[in-house]
Amino acid sequence: MTINQSQLIGFLLVMVRVGSFMWIAPPFNGRTIPALIRVPLAAALALPLTSNAIAAASGEVPSDTPEIIGAIVLQVVIGVALGGVVFTALSAIQAAGSLIDLAGGFQLSQAYDPMLNQQNSVMGRLFQMLTAVLLLVSGSYALILRGMASTFDALPLGTGLDLGLSAKVMTGELSTMFVATLQIAGPLVGVMLIADISLGLMNKVAPALNAFSLGFPLKIGLTLLLVGFTMPLLSPVLTGLTEQAVFAMRHLTGG
């Protein structure tokens, strides 16, 4: 078995794109998977893709140092763009959880999120963890990785992204994320709105009951009950968002 310089450089470029993608795209992003594990995993995934990537690039692999550095930067940009598309699509579930927090009164209890290194609310954190678990359990992560692997055929090594097409795809994914967020959290927010109106009318009719002080535990219990009914519905929603993310990656690379 002989390994030449072209194969080594091709493997490095493929690993850079895969590693940049995994750094952004769920469920591989965040601190749940340490860097000491993510780097060998990216190398293991890049190894079987190298031969096809070099063949798709017609064997044109840079050999000079400036060209190699430029190619590495290009692969980082492509990997981050692909990961950003997946992250945007799957963030709809977490955004729905944050919207439920806002309507249900959980927004006041902010907690530190070690996965994204930021403050996050209770339901937003719960929905984020459920997204990661469902991606791993349902096998949707494999669909995401296959979609990323197919980008080497549509966008070979040495080929850059179309900036106009990239902006169009990212805009479309943001629109999809907002629509999916409203579709997931909209019914629960509507129920919370009806509960607030009912409490307001009750307080108007009988001010001595102090309906608003009773509203906090009522809304919390109602939110927990509705979230319990919502949990079984997240799996098909996540499947649809995963397919949308894979389609967006294919569209981003011109495939």
Which structural traits does this protein have?
255 residues, elongated, 75% helix, two-stranded antiparallel sheet, mainly alpha, single chain
| Regions with little confidence, pLDDT below 50 for 5+ residues | none
Shape call: elongated
**Share of helical residues:** over 70%
Report the average pLDDT across residues: 81
Largest sheet: 2 strands, antiparallel
Main sheet strand line-up: 1-2
Q: How many domains make up the coordinates?
A: 1
Q: Structural class given helices, strands, pairing? A: mainly alpha
Number of helical elements: 10
Strands, count = 2
Distance between the termini: 33 Å
Radius of gyration: 23 Å
Q: What percentage of amino acids are in beta strands?
A: under 5%
One letter per element, helices H and strands E, the order comes to HHHHEEHHHHHH
Give a concise summary.
The protein has 255 residues and is an all-alpha fold.
Task: Walk me through this protein's architecture.
By secondary structure, this protein is an all-alpha fold. It has one domain. Helices cover 75% and strands 2% of the residues. Strands 1-2 form a two-stranded antiparallel ribbon. β1 and β2 form a beta hairpin. The longest helix is centred in the last third of the chain and has 43 residues. It is elongated and about 85 Å long. The two termini are 33 Å apart. The mean pLDDT is 81.
